[in-house]
TrEMBL record:
Name of the protein: UPF0342 protein ESZ50_04175
Source organism of this protein record: Weissella muntiaci
UniProt similarity note: Belongs to the UPF0342 family.
InterPro entries referenced in this protein's UniProt entry, alphabetically: Com_YlbF, YheA/YmcA-like_dom_sf
UniProt xrefs under Pfam families: Com_YlbF
Top-level taxon: Bacteria
Length: 114
């Protein structure tokens, strides 16, 4: 019997060797090394968590939550280490989406067969 978790654990080990992961790791280290970037990033994470908690409770974020999140996001756009972090996250996310497409291809083919 196959243990798919062995394969996934191997993939996890290989993921941290990709250029996308290393770029993200380095970008995050740069954010942590910059006091302004680190503080703004912390506020962004707090605002994001607040919105996520509201949505998980089955509610829509209120205007104040949205405005707060947008203000912090706009502030992030002006800070180079944070811009680099967001770009690195997007690149890693693209890789993960490609991997997900490959992994779920048999399911898509199953449903596509008529």
């Amino acid at each position: 019997m196959i243990n798919i978790y062995d394969t996934v654990n191997k993939l996890q080990g290989e993921l941290v060797e990709t250029a996308q992961y290393k770029t993200l790791r380095d970008a995050f280290a740069a954010v942590q090394a910059d006091p302004t970037a680190s503080e703004v990033f912390g506020r962004f994470q707090t605002a994001q968590a607040d919105i996520n908690a509201t949505m998980q409770a089955g509610q829509e974020p209120n205007e104040e939550q949205v405005k707060n999140w947008q203000a912090v996001a706009t502030e992030m756009d002006a800070i180079e280490p944070l811009k680099n972090l967001m770009q690195a996250e997007q690149a890693l996310n693209a890789l993960l989406m490609e991997i997900n497409d490959i992994i779920t291809k048999p399911i898509a083919q199953l449903y596509a067969a008529k």
